[in-house]
């Protein structure tokens, strides 16, 4: 991942990407009626260990869902991110005219 101008997302460095381990193709699943490939992997980022699942569309190769599980103290936490409306035509209007 290379940071682009104006990008405020996380920057995964080569060092972080090198911590990816146990990547496995788990098979095919359906998500909202669309065929997906499910991949699991783990990585260490900022001294935190993450176990991740990612659903990738078979027809377009885009991510549609990511589940990240990590420990917050001794409590396991799972964060789910859903992606949709790729290439949607979006109109943004200024609230101040």
In short, what is this structure?
This protein is mainly β and 97 residues long. The chain has one helix at residues 14-17; strands at 21-31, 34-45, 48-57, 63-72, 75-82.
How would you describe this structure to a colleague?
There is one protein chain. With 97 residues, the chain is mostly beta strands. Helices cover 4% and strands 53% of the residues. A five-stranded antiparallel sheet has the order 1-2-3-4-5, with no helix packed on it. The longest helix is centred in the first third of the chain and has 4 residues, at 14-17. The chain is extended and about 50 Å long. The termini are far apart. Residues 6-11 have low confidence and may be disordered.
